[in-house]
Amino acid sequence: MAENRISTSLSPADREAVLAAVSTIREKLPFLMDLTVEERRSLPKMGDKSRAFVSKALEVATQNPDFLPRSFDIEEMRRDVELFQALHPILLSLTQLQELLDDTYLAVGSDAYTAGLVVYNYAKNSGQGAGLDAVVDEMGRRFARKSRGT
């Protein structure tokens, strides 16, 4: 049998605690947005290079508000910059957690699927006459190919 990458379990209490923690995160960040694909595509993006630019722009706006239109809200810009800075470490932490969760989910799924293949192959090869024909046929549907229309 192939390498078993993970061998553990998650208790129902721990699962519920993790889900409660995620719920708490959502409660503490009630302003989170769900943008459409088009909205994401159309927005100007602020990356690492733009962070210094935006900080400098806020500094210039704060020290020289006279050249800006009256409708420009420097305090709103300051709140946006501060929120961006506050969210950055949270985003990094959750991104790392997401990657670990994705990798673990992939590995444990692979372990389970590999074990399932072993069971199927043994049942198929040695299960004839042992009352396993129906279940082997049912499991074999996973590998059935659909015929292509000509």
Kindly list the characteristics that best describe this protein:
elongated, mainly alpha, 5 helices, 67% helix, single chain, 150 residues, 0% strand
Overview of the structural elements:
This protein is mostly helical and 150 residues long. The chain has one domain (12-143). It has helices spanning 12-28, 37-42, 48-63, 74-126, 133-140. Helix 3 packs antiparallel against helix 4 (74-126). It starts with 11 loop residues before the first helix and ends in a 10-residue tail after the last helix. The relative contact order is 0.07.
Indicate the proportion of strand residues.
under 5%
Question: What structural category characterises the helix and strand content?
Answer: mainly alpha
From the alpha-carbon coordinates, what is the Rg to the nearest angstrom? 27 Å
Main sheet?
Answer: none
Number of helices: 5
The domain tally reads: 1
Give the averaged pLDDT, no decimals.
91
Order of helices and strands: HHHHH
Which geometry do the CA atoms define?
elongated
Q: Provide the helix percentage.
A: 55-70%
The CA-CA distance between the termini, in Å, is 40 Å
Number of strands: 0
Which segments are poorly predicted (pLDDT under 50) over 5 or more consecutive residues? none
